[in-house]
Amino acid sequence: MTYHIRGTDYGSHSSSGVSSVFPREVSIREVCAALARKWKTPDLGNKDDPLDEIVYLVLAGRTREQAYRDGYTKLKARFPNWGMVLDAGPKELEELISGGGLEEIKAAKIWDLMAYLAETPQGIDLSHLKGKKRDFVLEYLLKLPGVGLKNALCVMIYSLNMDAFPADANVIRICKSMGWIPTQWGHKKSQRVLAELVPDEIGRILHVNMVVHGRLICRPANPQCSQCVIKGYCAYGRRSMVGD
Hints:
The protein has helices at 25-39, 50-60, 65-78, 84-88, 90-96, 103-118, 134-142, 149-159, 169-177, 187-197, 203-216, 235-243; strands at 2-5, 8-12. The protein is mainly alpha-helical. It has two domains: 2-42 and 164-243, Helix-hairpin-Helix base-excision DNA repair enzymes (C-terminal) (Endonuclease Iii, domain 2); 50-159, Endonuclease III, domain 1, CATH 1.10.340. It has a two-stranded antiparallel ribbon. Helix 2 (50-60) crosses helix 3 (65-78), helix 5 packs across helix 6 (103-118) and helix 7 packs across helix 8 (149-159).
């Protein structure tokens, strides 16, 4: 079975044994509504400007929330214009974001992105994507160095007011616990399929509230199942209720 996001091919997998796993749309909408009532779709600090958002997402990878927020604040204070990054070089970037982990990798990603954009007709700016068609935006973002499908979809929902369903580690963990996707799937395959599975118009709301739920309740270690508002939909949660 081949998956497409608005006509864009992102890979395929065998449908054998998978179709029975996928939830009914009504279940997805019910889970979305329950999480929205609980968490109220809060602001997670994401950025209105699409280029700001990409930098923010790069810093957030495998990093504690306070550390990547602090790193972003330091970068913006030092580089009010992202073009200034190219004059500074990756080493100074590393120093500014130190303490968050993976500094060398993240600094290289940010520098490479700015160097790439500097060679485009629009320069180091992504505001020209606002108002463009969804397919064009997704294809454009995925051509940028260091930008994968999850981060591209995050830019679309947070900075470009488009419907999509990004899936970070929290989201994927919850979806696997509920049996929406097989537990053995990797991150990339999970993201591809979940982007198709979740109705576009609820994608942002479900994403944001799942991120919060994953941080506070459905944690990778010691999940708080007794406090979970969607445990009735969750295979792991139902087992915990039987144990209670």
